[in-house]
Hints:
The protein has two domains: 2-95, PH-domain like (Roll); 114-194, no CATH class. The protein has three helices and 14 strands. It has helices at 80-113, 171-183, 186-194, and strands at 2-5, 15-19, 23-26, 29-32, 38-48, 51-62, 67-75, 115-118, 121-124, 127-130, 133-136, 140-144, 148-153, 160-164. Strand 8 and strand 9 form a beta hairpin. Helix 1 (80-113) packs across helix 2 (171-183) and helix 2 crosses helix 3 (186-194). It is globular, with a radius of gyration of 19 Å. The termini are far apart. 22% of the residues are buried.
Amino acid sequence: xxxxxxxxxxxxxxxxxxxxxxxxxxxxxxxxxxxxxxxxxxxxxxxxxxxxxxxxxxxxxxxxxxxxxxxxxxxxxxxxxxxxxxxxxxxxxxxxxxxxxxxxxxxxxxxxxxxxxxxxxxxxxxxxxxxxxxxxxxxxxxxxxxxxxxxxxxxxxxxxxxxxxxxxxxxxxxxxxxxxxxxxxxxxxxxxxxx
Length: 195
C-alpha cells in the first residue's frame, strides 16, 4: 500500500502513507514493525459541547525511540466511509506483523518470568495487581466495553479499574492474554510454571 491520504473531512490528500513488508511510513515518520512494542487504536466521537460533530480515528505505534501516530477526523459524516475503510485497512495490514508478535511475546514473558506490566496493572502468574492489591485469577472478572476494558474483583466491589483503548497502550494485548488464561487453559500453563 502506498498512497496520498487525507486526514480530515476538509483536507486534500497530501500525507504519504506507505505500508511495506516490514515498516510503516506516514508523512515524515518511519517505524519498523519488528521494533514496535506498544500499540493502541480506536475511534471516539468529536464533541462540541454536548453535540457529536464527528469521529476521530487513532492508530498509534510505539517503539523504544520512535512513534508513529495516525489520526483521521471526520466531521458531520463527511468522508466517514473513506476514513472507516482507511482505518480498517491499516489495522488489517499491520495486525499480523505487530499485534500477533506482541501478543505471543507477552504470553511467553508471563509464562517464563511470571509477571509483566500493561497500563496501570501488573499481571502475575497468581493474578492481576491493581492499586497494590492482588486480585487472584479465580476472583477476577473482566468486561470488554466499547472504549475500555474493565477489570473487577468478584468479591470486593471497591477493587476495579478501567483501561481505555485510546489512553493505555496494549489493552488489546491484555484482552487476548485474559482470553488465553480463562478460555484456552492458559491458567494451567501458568500454574505449572509457578510451581
